[in-house]
Amino acid sequence: MLAKKITYKNYNDEDITETFYFNLNESELLEMEYSEAGGYREQLQKIIDTKDSKEIMATFKRIILMAYGEKTADGKFLDKGENQDLAKRFTHTEAYNKLVLELMSDEKALSNFFTAIIPTSIREKAEAEGLLKDHLPAKQ
Predict the structure, then answer these.
(1) Contact residues for 57 (Cβ-Cβ < 8 A; gap 6+)
(2) CA-CA 20 to 30 A from 47: which of 9, 14, 61, 96?
(3) Residue 99 belongs to what domain range?
(4) Domain membership flag for residue 92
């Protein structure tokens, strides 16, 4: 799970620093993989290869919102982005705006974000297979 601190101005023009949580677990990744003919990774690679900016942006937004959640104080539950009200509320914040601008303007930040939201076991396997190379995020 990625706990990402984002500093932004709220709509009262106040500077706020807040921690936002993003996580994709193994079953969610499996569901994503089997949701597309040929697999999600293959579909994602096709989108990247064609440089279809509209589809790239829509896909990244879907993944961000799927991973976004609000963690309970006891850490037992992460209310996730499939909750449409929660996802909509997040996209209407300046924190979301700052996150998207950061990820779309910095390839390393984008790679680090998506690497950090996947489970450690999957990240370690991908690293061992040389799939992540120099794109591992700094320890948070």
Answers:
(1) 104
(2) 96
(3) 2-25+65-128
(4) yes
